[in-house]
Amino acid sequence: MKVIVVGNGGREHAIAWKLSQSSLVEEVICVPGNGGTAFEDKCRNIDPEKCEYLDGIKGNDIYVKIAQENSCGLAVIGPENPLAEGLADSFWNAGIPTVGPKKMAAQLEASKDLAKSFMHKYNVACAKSRTFTEKEEALSYIHEQGAPIVIKADGLAAGKGVVVAKTVEEAEKAVNQLMDGEFVGDAGKKLVIEEYLRGTEISILSAVCVTKELSGQKKSCIVPFLSARDHKRLCDGAKGPNTGGMGAIAPVDDASPEILAQFEKSILAPTLKGLEEEGYDYRGFIFFGLMLTEDGPKCLEYNVRLGDPETQAVLPLMDFDFAALCASIADGSLADFNLTWKSGYQVAPVAVSGGYPRSYKKGFNIVIDEEKAKESSAKIFIAGAMENRRRRSPSDTKLVTNGGRVLACSAYGSTFDEAWKNAYSAMSCIKFTDMFYRKDIGLPGAAESN
Ligand code: AMP
Ligand code: GLY
């Protein structure tokens, strides 16, 4: 089977790498892919801008045409934006089995208002909230509730649409800025204002199969993966600005069996019921962003995809055929799929370009001491780096930086300490100008908590 993977981040490198290890997979077509997938076994990047057969073809049809030209029998969609734009619908309409929810279900991430209405309707454990489209009403609700309080733009805002306000003044300012379109444009015209939850966060990525098309013995289900934790702040000790993720670990020891049982009962099960009752076609992955509070886990958000960088920590621990799992999601047999996991831990710190998450320079050579890196047995997942096609001098490397989050070193250990040492020993084999990374991923005090 040939598989098309849509996206260009570290998550998509991990997905393509894991798919390529399957004996079921002949080739992985990465669109557009990145500098990591460019050098991965069985993987091939396709840049739509360079395909003559795409002349005059627009939007989702570009991906469908590439899949058809390359005889792909399965599609895996990485990021949220193409899902919200209905790429899964387009693939299915063209007869290509797909991993990723259809457009209607993808709105669970694209609209915070929809997600919260869904959670309240189906009794998913979550923070109390209300939605506003009128500024005066939002401001008077804030005065009534007091601070701390959380203000969220309704639409997709690439992580910039949430303000955790410690004071009423901060909350007022956030409402004004979000509703006036200063932060996130139209995404902030509608706001969800939410009760502030105290606790620490974890991520539970899961496989989902819910569709009216199931027949016979096939059952809908959500199957959780191992727990994981992202570290979103730029600096050690969970300080500094928010980023897209500075590193991940899996599994998370403070997600005890009791907490996971509570999660299944008060979050996963009602979510499954809701997906079924709403009649969604959701064959893909769902990411539960959870806050572990004194009153048990609460659902902060749904993402309709795998997390980045959680995927880079979770996929290497899979002790089953990931391509077979993806096929079972698409063909409705997920409920019968047996997921087994390596015991032990995975730690995946991320190296970023100096200046990120604000402005940063691109185009630096990435020097990797491959021999030394191999000793740590870490896998280097590339995100913001591209193949250097214009290598002129011997000092030019295979890869050059072209994004904020450049790569993750994901390493295994039978204990957390061993995984941690392996990951950071791999990181010490990598150099690029202005490279920056956190030194405390997974250590006490590194997790965001409030
Ligand atoms: P979201 O995009 O909804 O996950 O929000 C982004 C981040 O804001 C989360 O990862 C939390 O760190 C924080 N956050 C969101 N909602 C709350 C809440 N109700 N209470 C405290 N922190 C929150
Ligand atoms: N790691 C958080 C996310 O993927 O949204």
Which distinct ligands sit in these coordinates?
A: adenosine monophosphate, glycine
Which segments are poorly predicted (pLDDT under 50) over 5 or more consecutive residues? none
- What's the structural domain tally? 4
Count helical runs. Answer: 13
Which CATH-level-2 architecture of the largest domain?
2-Layer Sandwich
Sheet of most strands: 9 strands, antiparallel
What does this structure look like?
- With 450 residues, this protein is α+β, with helices and mostly antiparallel strands.
- It folds into four domains: 2-100, 3-Layer(aba) Sandwich (Rossmann fold); 134-189, ATP-grasp fold, A domain (Dna Ligase, domain 1, 2-Layer Sandwich); 198-336, 2-Layer Sandwich (D-amino Acid Aminotransferase, Chain A, domain 1), CATH 3.30.470; 346-437, Phosphoribosylglycinamide synthetase, C-terminal domain (Glycinamide Ribonucleotide Synthetase, Chain A, domain 4).
- It has 13 helices and 24 strands.
- It has helices at 10-20, 60-69, 80-84, 87-93, 103-110, 112-121, 135-145, 168-179, 257-277, 310-314, 322-331, 370-375, 416-427, and strands at residues 2-7, 27-32, 43-45, 74-77, 98-99, 129-132, 149-153, 162-165, 191-195, 200-210, 221-230, 233-235, 239-242, 247-250, 282-293, 296-303, 345-353, 367-368, 379-382, 385-387, 399-401, 405-413, 430-431, 435-437.
- A hairpin with a 3-residue loop joins β12 (233-235) and β13 (239-242).
- The mean pLDDT is 95.
- Bound molecules: adenosine monophosphate and glycine.
- Residues 127, 150, 152, 162, 164, 194-197, 201, 289, 300-301, 448 line the site of adenosine monophosphate.
